[in-house]
Amino acid sequence: MHQIVTQMDIGASPERVWSMLMDFSTYPQWNPFIRSLSGAAKPGEKLRVTIQPEGRKAMTFRPGVLTAIAQQELRWLGRLGVSGLFDGEHYFQLTALSDGNTRFTQGEQFSGALVGLFLPRMEAAIKAGFDAMNRALKDRAEAKVAIDQHNPDLIGGPTLT
Fold this sequence. Notes:
This protein is an alpha+beta fold.
């Protein structure tokens, strides 16, 4: 088994970050790696995911959701062909930090007979895609926090003076 893991601290609550991750319809607007995502984020359901690492062709696959725990983790398993050839277990994990912010972890565990053949040629592009998505999510979540802080009437908070 081989694993790629990336992490980024985001200056927003896990609730806010989770809501952005679950708003699949907006992915084409902000996500440079997962260009589209649709389906129900419920264990046993199938998603339709299109990824496009920079400089590579887009790939669409239909992984099965393994875990969906609100504000904590979304995990799915995708396969190339039949099970055991090239399987990827992708995950987003959110950890609440003591300051109210979020540590976002994105990773994938690869297994199967063809991993050694295909992954070395794709690994750098996949990691760069994860990093680009993490950065875009951070920028989007933190921009939303800044807007809410400057417009408290929109969120029902007290007026800042």
